[in-house]
Amino acid sequence: MSEPTSIQGELQAQIMSALWRLGEGTVPQVRGALPARYRSAYTTVQTVLNRLAERGLLDRTKQGKRVLYSPLLTEAEYLSRSIETTLAGASTEARQVVLANLVGGLDKAELSDLQELAREIAGKRRKRGRR
């Protein structure tokens, strides 16, 4: 399997969002979890699910006659990779401005939660570095 690629288009985004909520699902389950305006034909949803699997975003598991799809990345992991990829080609100044805008838009409770999460992540990185 190759490195996961980005989600392309609104239907793919809605399908991934549905699977992140469900955890896993068959074509009918995913289709049923989509907002009404994105509830395309069964075959359309199936095609998009298969394309997402081929692009490394979903796992496909055959269970009898049905296929179960599940995300290979959490929503947070996907967003983190997407942001890292986007920022990787930007200048230091641009990265700092983007991150400052994101952090600056948080309220005090969200900022406190973010600081705690950052400490947890830093602690995990230190533990991995000691191995």
- Spatial sequence of strands, sheet with the most strands: 1-2
**Oligomerization category of the chains in this entry:** single chain
The Rg value, from CA coordinates, equals 18 Å
Q: What is the overall number of helices?
A: 6
Description of the structure:
The structure is a single chain. The protein is mainly alpha-helical and 131 residues long. The chain contains six helices and two strands, in the order αααββααα. The protein has helices at 10-22, 27-33, 42-54, 75-88, 92-104, 108-130; strands at residues 58-63, 66-71. It has a two-stranded antiparallel ribbon. A hairpin with a 2-residue loop joins strand 1 and strand 2. The protein is elongated. The mean pLDDT is 92.
Structure summary:
The chain has helices spanning 10-22, 27-33, 42-54, 75-88, 92-104, 108-130; strands spanning 58-63, 66-71. By secondary structure, it is mainly alpha-helical. The longest helix has 23 residues, at 108-130.
SSE layout:
Layout: H1 10-22, H2 27-33, H3 42-54, E1 58-63, E2 66-71, H4 75-88, H5 92-104, H6 108-130
Core attributes:
131 residues, 9% strand, 2 strands, elongated, mainly alpha
